[in-house]
Every structure is written in C-alpha cells, then in structure tokens.
Write a sequence for this structure.
C-alpha cells in the first residue's frame, strides 16, 4: 500500500503520537479497502483554531475535538481524500473525561476522521451505527478496547 498520510503540527506534539496516528489511519484505510494511492492530511492544532473552523463551516462558535473536510475528486487530485483537523487540548480533555490516554484518543480521532473522509457519517442513527461498527472494528484491530460515548 502506498497511502500518503501527511501530518502537520501547528502545536507541539510528541513524535510517538504522530506515528501511532499514522498507523491508525493506515489501518483504517486498509480495513476499508481504500484506493492504495489515497492521500490525506491531518492538522494537529489548538482549541482556538478548531473553534474558528467550527464557526466558519458548521456555524457553531465553540471548540471541538475534530473536524473532517472531505474533498470532491478533481483533476490532478483524484486520490486526495481531504483534511482532518484535531485540537490536541480538546482531545486531552475528552480523553480525561472518557478515562483513556491522549495517545488512545488521538488514534480514535484518526480512525474517526478517516472514516468521515471515506464517506461515513454519524448524523442519522442508522448511519452512526454503521460508522461506529467500522470504527470499533479498526480500534479492535489496533488492540484498543475503548469505550466510546455514542452521544
């Protein structure tokens, strides 16, 4: 497989997190039988950045842990799936609330965001059930037995 996973660090992060996130995304793409030339970018940022994006694109003026921006195929970018933006601070807060580590949370977010880029959605109950099943399958494959709130 030749997946291209670029990670941009706008905040300081542990290099081990980056490698574990890449593994989580690679595992998701492999499990979902994505095009072997698939490309995506993950941006690791802060609450302020996510809040601004959330306000601009979702009309919600509050920080969030993750936003996914799938792209429409276009000439020269046929394999580019899109961008995932993650707030490290929000991810840490959520990890603390859920009782797992930041490393586990970042892997979860990598899987979750990648599934969104592959066309999964979690707005409607039936879609959410399908997405959560795919997410759980990847997390199990990674050896992560996380209890993920489905609210």
């Amino acid at each position: 497989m030749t997946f291209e996973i670029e990670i941009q660090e706008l905040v300081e992060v542990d290099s081990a997190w980056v490698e574990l996130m890449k593994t989580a995304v690679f595992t998701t793409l492999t499990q979902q039988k994505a095009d072997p030339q698939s490309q995506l970018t993950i941006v690791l940022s802060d609450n302020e950045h996510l809040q601004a994006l959330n306000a601009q694109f979702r009309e919600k003026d509050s920080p969030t842990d993750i936003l996914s921006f799938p792209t429409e195929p276009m000439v020269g970018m046929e394999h580019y799936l899109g961008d995932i933006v993650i707030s490290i601070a929000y991810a840490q807060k959520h990890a603390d609330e859920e009782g797992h580590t930041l490393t586990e949370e970042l892997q979860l977010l990598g899987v979750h965001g990648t599934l969104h880029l592959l066309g999964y959605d979690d707005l409607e109950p039936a879609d959410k059930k399908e997405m959560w099943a795919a997410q759980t399958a990847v997390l199990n494959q990674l050896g992560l037995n996380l209890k993920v709130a489905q609210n």
Remarks:
- The mean pLDDT is 93.
